[in-house]
Amino acid sequence: MIRFLPLVLLLGCGSPADRVVVYCAQDAEYAQGVFAAFDGQGRRTVAAKFDTEANKSVSLTVELEQEAGRPRCDVHWNNEILGSIRLARKGVYAAYSSPNAADFPPWSRATDGTWQAFAERARVLIVNTDLVPAAERPTSILDLTDAKWRGKLAMAKPQFGTTATHAACLFEVLGDEPAKAFFRGLKANGVALVAGNKTVARGVADGQFAVGFTDTDDAVLEVIAGKPVAVLFLDEAGHPQFPRLGTLFLPNTLAVVSGAPNEAGAKALVDYLLTTEDALAAAGGYQYPVAPGNTARPHPALKTRHEVTRMAADFDRAADRWDAVQAFLRDQFAR
Questions:
Q1: Which H or E run includes 211?
Q2: Are residues 46 and 85 in the same domain?
Q3: What is the average pLDDT value for the chain, to the nearest integer?
Q4: Which of 189, 266, 290, 313 has the fewest CB neighbours in a 10 Å radius?
């Protein structure tokens, strides 16, 4: 049985050899199945702590920083890579090269072995098809600053989760001044800031908004529910001024926490989770496998990876910009 322990239990003296404590930013409804399968092997159980949708990935990151030196967590399963890079730079993670990631592409692992990427989602636009005919839909993310979208656009709060990562990557790809102009344009268009990507997708599906920034997993759920929505992968034709624009794919990451109370159990769980990409593609958030040769289409509403122009973002350089980007976004949107 998976144990989703309250804070008081997770903050015990340590992890016994048969229990692995995981701080997990992946949605609980998707992670539970893979944790249950790991538990079913009969050797260890998973004690998982999850973030809330509104605080996605942020509170767990803060806890890991605060616990550095006396960790209570064994494995960090993060859902946005820039936070993982920043934690690795602070010494929160231990180096571990899983044999199950030996064939993964070089970009998917930290150069010092402190984290391993797997199972990607894409940042997309979800559109209400009743409100936006096909001929009027945007083809570039930069189109959203056009006055025609005033009062019709939604976005999760940019200080959190994959929206924050998307913003930092846009600054890296566009450059500071064009990226600032883009976000100022969204603000001028009255972009609605909501609690999370699920809220964006549901608001568009219900006609509260015409379009919204979200992740592929949240968009697909509205398609499955039969709502009048379409999923758009933007900047497919390239952009003459910004050739690195495209769809941003954001992987999950796995890391063994430095000084983990149950290091052996942590490594065993990381090894196992790296074998679950097919499950995560089929019913675990409709995520794209990173493993080479696996070109699965997570859902018919989504394009395959080879059909999409991938944003050529440098994650390390985007992480370098994190603090400055967050300061700008707070100034624009948190007042």
A1: strand 211-215
A2: yes
A3: 91
A4: 189
